[in-house]
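Incident log, support desk, overnight shift.

02:14 A customer reports that sequence design results differ from what the structure should imply. Their input is reproduced verbatim below. On-call engineer (initials T.W.) acknowledged and began investigating.
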């Protein structure tokens, strides 16, 4: 048998759990799926291309893709995996082709007006590594980055882009042969 005190404690516990979920929400996530194992030789010069493969990509979408490309180039330089990294480099040894297949945007306005109901921003893309010396694709993998969600304080599109780039750079770091 439950007493009134037991029921009150149970209600309080349930409310506390709901409150903590609303505050904590879901954390930002990222993942990689490979299409077979491969390794990357340490090369000197790398060219980065980022394109949309979505049926519709309006001006805001193109701006987000440009931000992703710039952040990817910056993070690859910081990781010091290659001697030269850019999106307009000549005589490159490796081409990193990123094809964005999904971009779910959540802006700060969306988050302000809709709060947790705005959902989670998401970026998904296929990455293809092309070795120009061997004249062949040496690796292909899928990368996904998601923003946090579930609260009014959750992240947006920028956080999803950052998670996408972070996962891509970390994965390439694991595959480099020195």
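02:41 Re-run completed on a clean worker. Output:
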């Amino acid at each position: 048998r439950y007493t009134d005190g037991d029921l009150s404690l149970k209600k309080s516990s349930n409310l506390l759990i709901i409150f903590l979920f609303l505050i904590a929400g879901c954390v930002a996530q990222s993942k990689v799926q490979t299409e077979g194992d491969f390794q990357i030789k340490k090369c000197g010069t790398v060219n980065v291309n980022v394109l949309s493969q979505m049926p519709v990509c309006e001006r805001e979408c193109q701006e987000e893709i440009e931000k992703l490309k710039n952040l990817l180039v910056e993070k690859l330089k910081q990781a010091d995996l290659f001697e030269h990294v850019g999106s307009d480099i000549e005589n490159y040894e490796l081409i990193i082709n990123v094809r964005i297949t999904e971009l779910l945007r959540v802006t700060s306005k969306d988050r302000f007006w809709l709060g947790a109901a705005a959902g989670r921003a998401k970026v998904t893309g296929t990455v293809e590594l092309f070795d120009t010396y061997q004249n062949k694709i040496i690796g292909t993998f899928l990368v996904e980055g998601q923003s946090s969600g579930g609260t009014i304080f959750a992240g947006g599109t920028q956080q999803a882009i950052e998670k996408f780039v972070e996962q891509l750079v970390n994965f390439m770091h694991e595959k480099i042969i020195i």
